[in-house]
Amino acid sequence: MNEIIKNIKFDDKGLIPVIAQDYNTNEVLMMAYMNKEALEKSLETGKAHYFSRSRNKLWQKGETSGHYSCFYREICEKEGLKETQEKVFD
């Protein structure tokens, strides 16, 4: 996990843009941001965690709706992260 994170180039605010896509169709579901902690939690738990810039805190996809998203794999590039996930699971 540390190898993945150390190769990520976070911006000056400690964030990286993330594109969430459906695992089966590659449909783009959303664009969000992760900080190091959100990426660590996503890799550790298998559930998508993000950083809310407006609330200045972490959030987990599904924490209020109950419709969680799996964090299946990541394709890391220096300035972005493509997250492939199931749309929803309970």
Please explain how this structure is put together:
With 90 residues, the chain is of the alpha+beta class. The chain has a single domain (2-85), classed as Ubiquitin-like (UB roll). Helix content is 17%, strand content 37%. It has helices at 2-6, 36-45; strands at residues 16-22, 28-34, 49-52, 57-60, 73-77, 80-85. A hairpin with a 4-residue loop joins strand 3 and strand 4. 20% of the residues are buried. Mean pLDDT is 77; it is low at 74-78.
The number of distinct helices, counting runs of at least 4 residues, comes to 2
Percent range of helical residues:
10-25%
- Please compute the radius of gyration using only Cα atoms: 12 Å
Strand order of the largest sheet: 2-1-6-5
Query: Which ranges are low-confidence, i.e. pLDDT below 50, for 5 or more consecutive residues?
Result: 74-78
CATH architecture: Roll
**Termini gap:** 26 Å
CATH-defined topology: Ubiquitin-like (UB roll)
Share in β-strands: 35-45%
Largest pleated sheet: 4 strands, mixed
Count of DSSP strands: 6
CATH superfamily: Phosphoribosyl-AMP cyclohydrolase
H/E element order:
HEEHEEEE
CATH uppermost class? Alpha Beta
Structural topology:
Blueprint: H1 2-6, E1 16-22, E2 28-34, H2 36-45, E3 49-52, E4 57-60, E5 73-77, E6 80-85
Descriptors for this entry?
single chain; 90 residues; alpha+beta; Ubiquitin-like (UB roll); 4-stranded mixed sheet; two-stranded antiparallel ribbon; 2 helices; 37% strand; globular
